[in-house]
């Protein structure tokens, strides 16, 4: 073999190794639907927030207000779990469909690396936000979740499409803006970060990788 043939062979091996360590079956439609779920959830949470504030200021009894706080955050937590479950189920459905069309396994080596790197920052962020809630620092929960979610995307982006890292950077920046300049507007920034950004990202990814041209 000539030197050029050796170089080409090594490049092919590198590409194969890189491809085997990356999960490339992410579907853009998963991001679109996740964003739509988030926007719907933000609207529901907004209506709950208005009702909560009305009841909170109409009744000045401390015991009643504490009970109202627990009720509101319990409902909000359940809503968040429902949206997360819907997003994960939809993501698995479209990713499985895309993997099948490409003749690949859904839970391959790249998928396992992706999930492992995604899970650690997400669980750490969830635990930190729970600590913030227990300490009463409620206003910091929204920016903290956006920042930790962005960090998890940055960590996982190495094992999937490069555009995931760009989404992660946007989420981190959005969380910092929320925390430093608009601390009381967490619901709005959640709608932007988990809703609008996902729809934009998913639409771009669908047009680039999924749409039949």
Please give a quick description of this structure:
The chain contains seven helices and no strands. With 213 residues, the protein is mainly alpha-helical.
Compute the gyration radius: what is it? 21 Å
Regarding quaternary structure, what we see is: single chain
Q: What shape does the CA trace take?
A: elongated
Structural class: mainly alpha
Number of strands: 0
Q: What's the story with the biggest beta sheet? A: none
Helix run count: 7
Overall number of structural domains: 1
Question: Percent of residues in beta strands?
Answer: under 5%
Low-confidence stretches: 9-20
Helix/strand order, N-terminal first: HHHHHHH
Q: Roughly how many Å apart are the termini? A: 38 Å
What average pLDDT do the residues reach? 84
In which range does the helix fraction lie? over 70%
Could you characterize the architecture of this molecule?
The protein has seven helices and no strands. The chain has 213 residues and is mostly helical. It has one domain (28-89, 107-210). It has helices at 3-20, 28-58, 62-101, 109-135, 141-156, 163-181, 186-210.
Write the layout of secondary structure elements.
Layout lengths: L2 H18 L7 H31 L3 H40 L7 H27 L5 H16 L6 H19 L4 H25 L3
Helix pairs in contact: 2-3, 2-7, 4-5, 5-6, 5-7, 6-7
Task: List its traits.
213 residues; mainly alpha; single chain
